[in-house]
Design goal:
By secondary structure, the chain is α+β, with helices and mostly antiparallel strands. It has three helices and three strands; from the N terminus they run H-E-H-E-E-H. A three-stranded antiparallel beta sheet has the order 1-3-2.
């Protein structure tokens, strides 16, 4: 997100729209990764009830960049409830 668009609710609306679309298409959970060095993004996803479920690396050339994996279930987004520990249908956390 460009700095000039932060703190205006744009990211929150985009995130709700994208996850809403995935859930409407039948997904029960949505996954994403965020660079481990981007604390602002990490805080943003946590604020929106996304659960940190694992780690991965993003390869850029020969360099591995650590990323956190986050997930949210349909019921967590709709109700705004706190995330539950573990998501058993995870693709490959850890």
């Amino acid at each position: 997100m460009l700095e000039r668009f932060t703190r205006q609710g744009v990211g929150s609306r985009l995130l709700r729209h994208a996850t809403g679309h995935a859930f409407a298409a039948g997904a029960t959970a949505v996954w994403l990764s965020a660079w481990a060095g981007n604390q602002r993004a990490i805080d943003f996803y946590k604020k929106h009830n996304w659960l940190h479920v694992g780690e991965t690396s993003f390869m850029l050339g020969a360099v591995a960049h650590p990323n956190h994996i986050f997930a949210i279930r349909k019921s967590q987004q709709r109700r705004g409830c706190a995330p539950r520990a573990g998501l058993p249908d995870s693709p490959h956390p850890g």
